Amino acid sequence: MGSKEKVILDKQGIDRAVTRITHEILEKNKGCDDLVLIGIRSGGDHLAALLRERMKEIEGGQVPHGAVDVTMYRDDVGQGAVRPLGKTEIPFALDNRHVILVDEVIYTGRTIRAAMDALMDIGRPSSIQLAVLVDRGHRELPIRADYVGRNVPSARDENIQVFFDEAHQPLEVRLIKP
Ligand SMILES: O=P(O)(O)OC[C@H]1O[C@H](OP(=O)(O)OP(=O)(O)O)[C@H](O)[C@@H]1O
Ligand SMILES: O=c1cc[nH]c(=O)[nH]1
């Protein structure tokens, strides 16, 4: 790791944040009966899988888990090469369910706007709630997260990256200075 990088959350810190967020989701929704978890590719789906596991440990229920690729819904889709990060895979109905949308980092909010449009094309959920591991500020749209692992004040030219191992388990979150 270079001197321009700083670890914001290590494995244990991520684990604690995921556990806390899971409890907050279960508290707010009075359990997991009507929930579905949708992760945004490519890292949000790994975090959604982790939340699903944690919910099973705490509550015993199996929450449906899907993934959304937002590439074609992005507002900059016409401005460069389009590189889908994976497929949208939601093999269940969203109607009348509470969707927990999951992503690694929220910054401008544009990815979340795209994800909400993608989901609304698929069904009509009762609600969409947003869980992120890191909120780094600098929103450009009126969007906020309902569940946040860590708020990290950042400069616009910095970058925050979540690293995963080969089994898609989160390893650490780093702030990278230019
Ligand atoms: O709020 P925003 O300004 O839209 O930024 C947040 C998005 O940026 C990152 O994805 P990125 O586009 O870097 O792709 P990645 O998931 O492959 O890292 C992150 O995972 C979020 O999806
Ligand atoms: O710092 C940032 C900004 C957008 N997306 C990220 O993953 N990190």
TrEMBL record:
Pfam families: Pribosyltran
Record's keyword annotation contains Glycosyltransferase: yes
Motif range (PRPP-binding): 99-111
UniProt keyword annotation of Isomerase present: no
GO terms of biological process kind: regulation of DNA-templated transcription
CDD domains recorded: PRTases_typeI (cd06223)
GO MF entry, a single one: uracil phosphoribosyltransferase activity
Reactions it catalyzes: UMP + diphosphate = 5-phospho-alpha-D-ribose 1-diphosphate + uracil
Domain Phosphoribosyltransferase: 8-153
EC top class, as a word: transferase
Matching NCBIfam families: PRK05205.1-1 (NF003545), PRK05205.1-5 (NF003549)
Role summary: Also displays a weak uracil phosphoribosyltransferase activity which is not physiologically significant.
Family per record: Belongs to the purine/pyrimidine phosphoribosyltransferase family. PyrR subfamily.
Protein name: Bifunctional protein PyrR
Gene: pyrR
